[in-house]
Amino acid sequence: MNIYNSTNIEFNNSNFMELNMDHFRTNQYSRINAVRYARTYALHPNPSFRYFPLINNESSGDCANFISQCLLAGGGPMTFSGSHPWWYNKANTVSTKDDTWSVTWTVANSLYWTLKVNQQSKSSGIKGLEIYDNSLLELGDLVFFEGNNGNIFHSAIITSFRYAQPLVSHHSFEALDINYTNSWPAKRVHFLKISL
């Protein structure tokens, strides 16, 4: 069953994606593909990926896993080696419980720092430049939420704008096009401009 199509990426339940290599040769993050994916799966998670439910409304959750899926849909290449690996490996079994993944794929704090380090070191792969002016944000950029302890605990993707304010979509809780200030309460938010 085909559940998503674009000129560059096809998503379906039997095999998550087939990539058009021309997309990777351009070395550009496809904001359109990332946002289309986010809008498709924000309220109903993709069954082709493991889902991490929120536990006791405090820990775990699926936010970084969902954001990583969006980055992948936008053309972010998985990195299996090096000091900052970012990957998801499907076991191709009936259950997603057999799949494996890197910590940076599923933990918001690790994903945030990996994107920043990749930007600072000019590494190949997906990167995030922290910006402090939300008027510079575009569709497909990310918002990370910092708690009182200084750790990043939540992540979201910008999927729309209203009155020049970014609206985000995320998991844990599932949300589509809400103002980032209506998401999880945070001591501070971090805006990352995404690129390859």
Structure in words:
By secondary structure, the protein is α+β, with helices and mostly antiparallel strands. It has a single domain (2-195), classed as endopeptidase fold (from Nostoc punctiforme), CATH 3.90.1720. 22% of the residues lie in helices and 30% in strands. It is built from 5 helices and 13 strands. The chain has helices at 21-25, 31-41, 63-73, 103-106, 108-120; strands at 2-5, 9-12, 17-19, 54-55, 59-60, 88-89, 100-101, 127-131, 142-146, 152-162, 165-170, 175-179, 188-195. The strands form 4 sheets. It has a 6-stranded antiparallel beta sheet. A 3-stranded antiparallel beta sheet has the order 1-2-3. A hairpin with a 4-residue loop joins strand 2 and strand 3. Helix 2 crosses helix 3. It is globular and about 45 Å long. The model is unreliable at 1-25 (pLDDT under 50).
